[in-house]
Amino acid sequence: MKPYFFHIIANEIAGAYHGKTNTKLVVQYLTQQQIQFTLNKTHYPGHAVKIAQALIIPKQDQYQHLVLVIGGDGTLHQVIKGLRQNTQSPLIPVGYIPSGSGNDFSRSLNLSADPIKNLQQIQQAKAPQNLDIGVFTQTNGHTSIFVNNIGIGIDARTVFLTNHSKIKKVLNHLKLGTFSYLANLLRAYRQQKSFSVTVKTKDQKQTFKNIFLVTFGNEPYFGGGVPILPHANVYSRSIELVLVEKLPFHQLAPLFYRVFKDGTHLKDKHVHYFKGRQFQLTTNQLEYGQIDGEELGHHAFDFKVTLTQYPFWLK
Ligand SMILES: Nc1ncnc2c1ncn2[C@@H]1O[C@H](COP(=O)(O)OP(=O)(O)OP(=O)(O)O)[C@@H](O)[C@H]1O
């Protein structure tokens, strides 16, 4: 087995500076172990895409090259996106040290929260595994990937409100980021009007009215641990889709409880559930969108979701 060469892409502000602590620990460990690495820190939103696009890695040399992502779901998303657009290097396998506030991707794979344990597992792995990722293509040509999910409606509105709330920084500093998400979820519920969605799969086209949540998922969780798609997993070679109708609070609360209790929310008559490899979805009005927790803007959506794989070097 060739010795490792880690190309670290680190978002130090992820998880209210958990990224910084983990970066320090990883650098110390790799130095002690005399493992080769480069350290690229992100300096602004979206920087991880640019770093990943520009990484140059030799096709054949004495090392096993890996990109090591230190950050949250958003950073992982950006790195995979950038690496897929990198025309100068072959597809480089990705290792991941979860350091965000939500960490839904690592939760679904049961990765250790301890960065050193995680690194040791990466070192023990002998080969990459191809995991599913979603491909999102808008009719205007804009394309991206998702490692976790795409959301339209209330959860994307919550992401928007949380990112733009004045007290977010203070709450993050106090490690109360989840509190700020929950507070904004209630605000989003009050604001979110229902909308119509048309879904086209391989065999059918259906329109659903009165929807307030749309989630395409590659793994079970959104919003930092809510198992909205309990059967989704990154080895299934399929993407799942759930549409939830807007309900009065006294009906929504028990439905939400079932999400955590046993996943039977998927059988509710106000919930529409699909599984497949290819979807087309349109909304009839302007809505907020999010992709792996990153904002997709506020507009009418018309896009395709398909499936591909990316090599990960995990455990
Ligand atoms: N130096 C920086 N200054 C400001 N923003 C940054 C910087 N580096 C990265 N970012 C942005 O930080 C955002 C959040 O990163 P990330 O999603 O990894 O962490 P998180 O939100 O704490 O975790 P999670 O998504 O798991 O909840 C990303 O949108 C990224 O573009």
Summarize the structure.
This protein is α+β, with helices and mostly antiparallel strands and 315 residues long. It has helices spanning 14-32, 47-54, 73-85, 104-109, 115-124, 154-163, 168-173, 177-191, 249-261, and strands at residues 4-10, 36-41, 64-71, 94-98, 129-138, 143-146, 149-153, 195-200, 205-217, 239-245, 271-276, 278-283, 287-291, 294-299, 302-312. Helices cover 32% and strands 33% of the residues.
Helix proportion: 25-40%
Number of domains: 2
Radius of gyration: 20 Å
Report the CATH topology name of the largest domain. Tumour Suppressor Smad4
The low-pLDDT segments are none
Q: Could you give a short account of the major beta sheet? A: 11 strands, antiparallel
What is the correct CATH architecture of the largest domain? Answer: Sandwich
Distance between the termini: 16 Å
- Portion of residues in beta strands equals 25-35%
Q: What hetero molecules are in the model?
A: adenosine-5'-triphosphate
- Look at the structure and give the mean pLDDT: 94
- How would you classify the helix and strand content by structural class? alpha+beta
Secondary structure tally, helices: 9
H and E string: EHEHEHEHHEEEHHHEEEHEEEEE
Strand count: 15
CATH top level of the largest domain is: Mainly Beta
Tell the overall outline: globular
